[in-house]
Amino acid sequence: MNTRKITTTAIFIALTAFFTMVIKIPVSPAMGYVNLGDFIILLSTVAFGPVIGMISAAFGSSLADLLLGYAAFAPFTFVVKGLMALVMGLFLKKINNQKTSTVLIAGVICELVMVVGYYFTSVFLYGNKTAIATILPNSVQAAVNFIIFALIWKRFLKITESILKD
Protein backbone atom coordinates (compact mmCIF):
# COMPACT_ATOMS: atom_id res chain seq x y z
CA MET A 1 0.00 0.00 0.00
CA ASN A 2 1.26 3.45 -0.82
CA THR A 3 0.98 6.50 1.42
CA ARG A 4 -2.22 7.74 -0.25
CA LYS A 5 -3.98 4.38 0.23
CA ILE A 6 -2.86 4.11 3.85
CA THR A 7 -4.06 7.65 4.55
CA THR A 8 -7.37 7.07 2.76
CA THR A 9 -7.91 3.87 4.71
CA ALA A 10 -7.16 5.58 8.02
CA ILE A 11 -9.57 8.42 7.20
CA PHE A 12 -12.33 5.95 6.39
CA ILE A 13 -11.67 3.91 9.52
CA ALA A 14 -12.16 7.14 11.49
CA LEU A 15 -15.25 8.18 9.50
CA THR A 16 -16.82 4.75 9.90
CA ALA A 17 -16.22 4.81 13.67
CA PHE A 18 -17.47 8.40 13.91
CA PHE A 19 -20.73 7.85 12.02
CA THR A 20 -21.29 4.59 13.87
CA MET A 21 -20.90 6.36 17.21
CA VAL A 22 -22.48 9.78 16.60
CA ILE A 23 -26.02 8.75 15.80
CA LYS A 24 -26.81 5.50 17.53
CA ILE A 25 -30.10 4.19 18.77
CA PRO A 26 -29.70 1.48 21.41
CA VAL A 27 -32.03 -1.44 20.76
CA SER A 28 -31.14 -3.72 23.68
CA PRO A 29 -28.00 -5.16 25.23
CA ALA A 30 -28.48 -8.34 23.21
CA MET A 31 -29.17 -6.53 19.94
CA GLY A 32 -26.69 -3.66 20.12
CA TYR A 33 -27.69 -0.42 18.43
CA VAL A 34 -28.83 1.03 15.11
CA ASN A 35 -26.30 3.43 13.59
CA LEU A 36 -25.28 5.35 10.46
CA GLY A 37 -21.86 3.79 9.89
CA ASP A 38 -22.92 1.60 6.99
CA PHE A 39 -23.31 4.39 4.46
CA ILE A 40 -19.63 5.23 4.97
CA ILE A 41 -18.79 1.56 4.38
CA LEU A 42 -20.79 1.64 1.16
CA LEU A 43 -19.14 4.88 0.02
CA SER A 44 -15.60 3.78 0.81
CA THR A 45 -16.12 0.49 -0.98
CA VAL A 46 -17.63 1.93 -4.14
CA ALA A 47 -14.99 4.67 -4.31
CA PHE A 48 -11.86 2.77 -3.30
CA GLY A 49 -12.56 -0.92 -3.83
CA PRO A 50 -12.81 -4.08 -1.76
CA VAL A 51 -9.54 -3.85 0.17
CA ILE A 52 -9.84 -0.29 1.49
CA GLY A 53 -13.58 -0.82 2.00
CA MET A 54 -13.04 -4.05 3.94
CA ILE A 55 -10.26 -2.70 6.16
CA SER A 56 -12.16 0.54 6.87
CA ALA A 57 -15.38 -1.31 7.62
CA ALA A 58 -13.87 -3.98 9.85
CA PHE A 59 -11.62 -1.72 11.91
CA GLY A 60 -13.89 1.35 12.03
CA SER A 61 -17.02 -0.53 13.05
CA SER A 62 -15.35 -2.79 15.61
CA LEU A 63 -13.52 0.22 17.07
CA ALA A 64 -16.90 1.87 17.58
CA ASP A 65 -18.18 -1.25 19.34
CA LEU A 66 -15.19 -1.20 21.68
CA LEU A 67 -15.51 2.51 22.44
CA LEU A 68 -19.27 2.29 23.01
CA GLY A 69 -19.05 -0.62 25.44
CA TYR A 70 -20.14 -3.41 23.10
CA ALA A 71 -16.86 -5.31 23.29
CA ALA A 72 -18.59 -8.69 23.04
CA PHE A 73 -19.81 -7.70 19.58
CA ALA A 74 -16.48 -6.30 18.33
CA PRO A 75 -15.00 -9.53 16.89
CA PHE A 76 -18.29 -10.37 15.18
CA THR A 77 -18.62 -6.81 13.90
CA PHE A 78 -15.08 -7.02 12.54
CA VAL A 79 -16.04 -10.07 10.47
CA VAL A 80 -19.56 -8.99 9.44
CA LYS A 81 -18.64 -5.44 8.43
CA GLY A 82 -15.46 -6.54 6.70
CA LEU A 83 -17.40 -9.19 4.81
CA MET A 84 -20.04 -6.62 3.80
CA ALA A 85 -17.45 -4.43 2.10
CA LEU A 86 -15.53 -7.36 0.63
CA VAL A 87 -18.65 -8.85 -0.96
CA MET A 88 -19.76 -5.48 -2.33
CA GLY A 89 -16.29 -4.63 -3.62
CA LEU A 90 -15.74 -7.99 -5.28
CA PHE A 91 -19.20 -7.84 -6.86
CA LEU A 92 -18.44 -4.41 -8.33
CA LYS A 93 -15.01 -5.56 -9.48
CA LYS A 94 -16.45 -8.67 -11.16
CA ILE A 95 -19.23 -6.75 -12.92
CA ASN A 96 -16.67 -4.03 -13.78
CA ASN A 97 -19.00 -1.07 -14.20
CA GLN A 98 -20.40 1.69 -12.06
CA LYS A 99 -23.82 2.02 -13.60
CA THR A 100 -26.36 3.22 -11.09
CA SER A 101 -28.27 -0.06 -11.13
CA THR A 102 -25.09 -2.11 -10.55
CA VAL A 103 -23.91 0.05 -7.66
CA LEU A 104 -27.34 0.03 -6.02
CA ILE A 105 -27.64 -3.76 -6.37
CA ALA A 106 -24.18 -4.06 -4.80
CA GLY A 107 -25.34 -1.82 -1.95
CA VAL A 108 -28.39 -3.98 -1.32
CA ILE A 109 -26.25 -7.12 -1.33
CA CYS A 110 -23.86 -5.46 1.12
CA GLU A 111 -26.66 -4.60 3.53
CA LEU A 112 -28.15 -8.09 3.23
CA VAL A 113 -24.78 -9.47 4.31
CA MET A 114 -25.05 -7.26 7.42
CA VAL A 115 -28.57 -8.40 8.33
CA VAL A 116 -27.74 -12.09 7.78
CA GLY A 117 -24.34 -11.78 9.48
CA TYR A 118 -25.79 -10.23 12.61
CA TYR A 119 -28.62 -12.74 12.63
CA PHE A 120 -26.07 -15.59 12.82
CA THR A 121 -24.03 -13.63 15.36
CA SER A 122 -27.11 -13.41 17.58
CA VAL A 123 -27.92 -17.09 17.07
CA PHE A 124 -24.41 -17.89 18.27
CA LEU A 125 -24.49 -15.49 21.23
CA TYR A 126 -28.12 -15.64 22.37
CA GLY A 127 -30.10 -18.29 20.49
CA ASN A 128 -32.63 -18.24 17.69
CA LYS A 129 -35.47 -16.39 19.49
CA THR A 130 -33.34 -13.35 20.16
CA ALA A 131 -31.74 -13.61 16.73
CA ILE A 132 -35.12 -13.37 15.02
CA ALA A 133 -35.75 -10.13 16.93
CA THR A 134 -32.57 -8.61 15.45
CA ILE A 135 -33.84 -8.83 11.88
CA LEU A 136 -36.14 -5.78 12.09
CA PRO A 137 -33.72 -3.27 13.67
CA ASN A 138 -30.89 -4.44 11.41
CA SER A 139 -33.18 -4.13 8.39
CA VAL A 140 -34.11 -0.58 9.42
CA GLN A 141 -30.43 0.26 9.80
CA ALA A 142 -29.73 -1.26 6.39
CA ALA A 143 -32.56 0.66 4.72
CA VAL A 144 -31.64 4.03 6.24
CA ASN A 145 -27.96 3.66 5.39
CA PHE A 146 -28.76 2.43 1.89
CA ILE A 147 -31.04 5.42 1.23
CA ILE A 148 -28.35 7.88 2.36
CA PHE A 149 -25.80 6.07 0.18
CA ALA A 150 -28.14 6.02 -2.84
CA LEU A 151 -28.70 9.76 -2.54
CA ILE A 152 -25.04 10.79 -2.34
CA TRP A 153 -22.76 8.16 -3.94
CA LYS A 154 -22.45 9.81 -7.36
CA ARG A 155 -21.58 13.19 -5.90
CA PHE A 156 -19.14 11.51 -3.49
CA LEU A 157 -17.35 9.79 -6.39
CA LYS A 158 -17.00 13.10 -8.23
CA ILE A 159 -15.54 14.75 -5.14
CA THR A 160 -13.08 11.93 -4.44
CA GLU A 161 -12.01 11.76 -8.08
CA SER A 162 -11.25 15.48 -8.14
CA ILE A 163 -9.37 15.36 -4.82
CA LEU A 164 -7.34 12.26 -5.66
CA LYS A 165 -6.23 13.29 -9.14
CA ASP A 166 -2.47 13.32 -9.43
From TrEMBL:
The keyword Membrane applies. It comes from the Bacteria. GO terms for cellular component: membrane. The chain crosses the membrane at residues 6-27, 39-61, 67-91, 103-126, 132-153. Keywords: Membrane, Transmembrane, Transmembrane helix. This is ECF transporter S component.
